[in-house]
Amino acid sequence: MHEPVKDSSNLFAMDQAAAVSVSKPPKPGARASMNADERDALEHRIRCQCGCTLDVYTCRTTDFSCQVSPAMHRDVMALVDGGYPAQEILDAFVGTYGERALMAPKREGFNMVGYLLPSLALAGGGTLLLFMIRRWGARAAMRPVPVAAATTNATNEEMQRLADAVRRDA
Amino acid sequence: MILIGELSLWVALLMATWCATVSFTGARTGRHDLMASGERALHATTFMIVLASIGLWTALLTHDFSLEYVASNTSANMPRIYVFTAFWGGQAGSMLFWALILSVYSSIAVATTRTKSPTLVPWATGTLATVLVFFIATTCFKANPYTRLDFLPVDGRGMNPQLQNPGMAIHPPNLYLGYVATTIPFAFAIAALATRRLDSEWLGIVRRWSLISWFFLTVGITLGMWWAYVELGWGGYWAWDPVENASFLPWLTGTAFLHSIMVQEKRGMLRKWNVVLVVMTFLLAIFGTFLTRSGLIESVHSFARSPVGSWFATFFFLATGITIYLVATRLRDLEARAELESMVSREAAFLYNNLVLVGIAFSVLWGTLFPIISEWVRGTKITVGPPFFNTVNIPLGLLLLALTGVGPLIAWRKASTSNLKRQFANPVIAGLSAGMLLFALGMRDGYALVAYILCAFVAGTIVQEFVKGTRARRSMHGESLPVALMRLVARNRRRYGGYIVHAGIVILFAAFAGLAFKTEHDVTLGSGQAYQVSDPYGHRWRFVSQGVSKYETLNREVTAVTLETWRDGQMVGLITSEKRQHFDTQKRPQFEPSTEVGIRSSAKLDTYVVLAGVRGEEAELRITFNPLVVWVWIGGALMAFGGLVVMWPQAERRRAQGGYVSVLEPATTVAP
Q1: Smallest Cβ distance to B385: which of A9, A103, A132?
Q2: B156, B143, B141, B161: which is closest to B64 by C-alpha?
Q3: DSSP assignment, residue B338?
Q4: Alpha carbon distance B117, B98 (integer Å)
Q5: What is the pLDDT of residues B1-21, one digit of tens each?
Q6: Global pTM?
Q7: Is it the case that residue B658 has pLDDT exceeding 60?
Q8: How many domains does chain A have?
């Protein structure tokens, strides 16, 4: 499996040697398994391996300094013409490059942690927040009914110290 | 000058080390001579780093290719502006640039607060100097822009063509200004924790610098989106790239802080949480920098694997450990002075807003890190791209948009039913009306529809606030409409500046939702051939190729195709997209060819043409209709303008007149 390597200290360095052929023999009596739009949609799900983080379709139609995405596009075309459906083409790319060939991880196994954790964390945070708000609300409700503030010669700091002392005693 | 610059860098390291040592010692022992020495050493460090920076700029502008950095990032025939911007275009230069901004910020922060906060300043100075020591040491030992080659190249390698864009001159500096500004609130938070002076003294300083950071991050991120859109030709402005995510993270937590600080100012609540947010914002800026400089993650515009990664990791973990210790040992000092009374109140709304903002930050961080975690756990590399981030973040973004409308209108402490009805009746009607209208017009995309309903709702709340405030001023002071509106904003800058930021957010979301209707078309056109297609609004477009032309200009060879563009039978102009091959002074090609996008912008949509390839006389093109993109830049600019309004200094007398910053009394008062 080819590991992409950046070759300079500059920004935007690409690994132009990252393309590895993904090929399978055509199915007997093969006809193209999808139309151009479906093929483009499929290419949106496959990641270009030059190090750009874009999908094959976007990369190849964007910046032809990349030689990897056109090579990967040719592989997709050959597999489509060979009669392979989308899932089998994706599997072929995963077989060659590993799971990093997909723009999003498969929804299975450990990857589910990746998908679910943000929602679980947010739900946990929300629950904790509601619990705290209710607790604060209950405490506030137990306090004496506000009355008009008395005039006093005490400074704010003295008042704060008094409030702290009362809280400690409570 | 170059030699002076090189020496200055090392002297700056010694100065910063001295500054950190004497400032902390002075703060601990109460020795004023040491504290004063620390302050002077900080300014001296700044001066030395300015000299080091001038030295590097001199080397770049005089094409001193004996320096590896100059030879690696510039060439003799590069336009001068990009030679200048090469200062921050590479790893080593950007480290020095970071140190330059940090030292200038530190000097300003210390000079402007030394008399107001004499207790905090020595600790803050020590903390700032420690961060400076880290950056200068990393620059000196791991990424030194003054490293010399053992031979003298005839010419340099030049700069990547995609960096030779006006965006390069303005986007990275703004982002750095934003990132680095997070250090000042962090330093004062550490000072407040160390001295246990966790009252309003540190909060004022922290708020000001957090706003500065937020402002520059907003400008930097927006400019980055614009640059990606016009230069990279992805057809979009945001790709959830790890480097984009790294800039987004501190923006999210910084935004959360700017909301929750209001609760602390008004009610004395959320004191622990605010310290955590300030620290988290700084640590995320450092962590993002670590991610993009360590080579740990792949990104289109991250730096290559470099030795600075391990230094950043060490610094990050040390800073995290020290902060956790300080917060844990000062929990009693951070007790709230009031308690939340209702789930339906402005305090609660700000808490929900914080939950969502931090939730988005977590999901972005998690998505960015998950490939690494997966590799550790399973030994398998995976990609977490836009499909993942969009799935998780679009609903959260919409929730945040809704809260943008709710938060400012709901009453403090406890909102009554009548308050809710009075404040929200009109905005809700506006939102529902917009939804029904768009549905009737045929909009069926669920997320886009919800986004526009919420945009109309939030816009309703903002308009309502401006109308109410202006009316009140007109009736009280008899002012004309423009004068009343201007004075309303001028006298309540925090409040109405905030509304302007919210208006920018509404515009941004409306523009984001427009992307749901983006269409792309791949075509191959020979000279004189035409392509006809309808845009998402149903207008009929016709593109006629004027043929492929090739010419040489400045430091590049250009292959261009121009399309004569017609809409609904009327010619609207020419759109040109180019392929550029840059070369050096010896006419040797540099880098791979790059693409210049052709864009025709209007309020409704952008027609976006990318020359994807040339076969003989035929041009392979991708034509994209991107609805509402121009509103992304307008929204971003409005947000930045709102930030400026909020930041603009306000005289105490006027602030009092504004009536916004008055602190609410605690819920209970002591009975006589």
Answers
A1: A103
A2: B156
A3: S
A4: 26
A5: 778 888 999 999 999 999 999
A6: 0.87
A7: no
A8: 1
Two tokens at B461? 């709340």
Q: Is A75 a member of any domain?
A: yes
Mean pLDDT of all residues in B315-344: 85
A156 touches chain B (CB under 8 A): no
Helix (H) or strand (E) holding B577: strand B570-583
Using CA coordinates, name the residue in chain A closest to B162: A12
B545 located within any domain: yes
CB contact under 8 A, A64 and B613: yes
- What total number of domains does chain B contain? 2
Any CB–CB contact under 8 A between B362 and chain A? yes
Segments forming the whole domain that contains residue A92: 36-101
ipTM above 0.85, yes or no: no
Residue A143 falls inside a structural domain:
no
Q: Does B319 map to a domain?
A: no
- What are the E-state strand segments in B459-569? 519-525, 530-534, 540-553, 556-567
Which residues of chain B does A45 touch, with a Cβ-Cβ cutoff of 8 Å?
Answer: 387
Q: Which pLDDT does position B69 carry in this prediction?
A: 93
Is A126 a domain residue?
A: no
A130 touches B at CB < 8 Å: yes
Residue B411, SS3?
coil
The reply to whether residue B72 touches residue A10, judged by beta carbons under 8 angstroms, is yes
CATH of the domain at B562: 2.60.98
Percentage of residues in chain A having pLDDT higher than 70: 75
Domain containing B137 equals 1-159
The residues in A 34-63 lying below 8 A from B, measured between CB atoms, are 36, 40, 45, 47, 51-55, 58, 60-63
Under 8 Å between Cβ of B433 and B527: no
Q: What's the token pair of residue B429?
A: 């009607």
Express each pLDDT in B489-534 by its tens digit. 998 999 999 999 999 999 999 999 999 999 988 899 999 999 999 9
Distance from CA of B480 to the nearest CA of A (A): 40
The verdict on a CB contact (< 8 Å) between B339 and A162 is no
